[in-house]
Write a structure and sequence with these properties.
This protein is an all-alpha fold. It contains four helices and no strands. The chain has helices at about 5-15, 30, 35-50, 65-75. α1 (about 5-15) crosses α3 and α1 (about 5-15) crosses α4 (about 65-75). It starts with a helix and ends with a helix.
Length: about 80
């Protein structure tokens, strides 16, 4: 099982935010102004930290950190 704290930390690092600002219920769009580069940075960090492969457009419709967690749990492993 994936630890939600690790997902929060990965997203915080990718968005250059303090870890305390990223919570499981946080909406990605509320954390930072998301553009295609920031989505790629999040996806790359997740791929690296969790050894999974997210589809290229997976994060475009992601609402919250909990959504990212569910995506990681169902993503194919590298």
């Amino acid at each position: 099982m994936i630890e939600v704290e690790k997902v929060c930390a990965t997203i915080a690092i990718a968005l250059d935010l303090p870890a305390a600002e990223v919570r499981p219920e946080s909406r990605l769009a509320d954390l930072a102004e998301l553009d295609s580069l920031s989505l790629v940075e999040i996806a790359t960090a997740i791929d690296s930290d969790f050894q999974v492969r997210l589809p290229g457009d997976a994060l475009t419709e992601t609402l919250s950190v909990n959504d990212v967690l569910r995506m990681i749990e169902h993503a194919p492993r590298q």
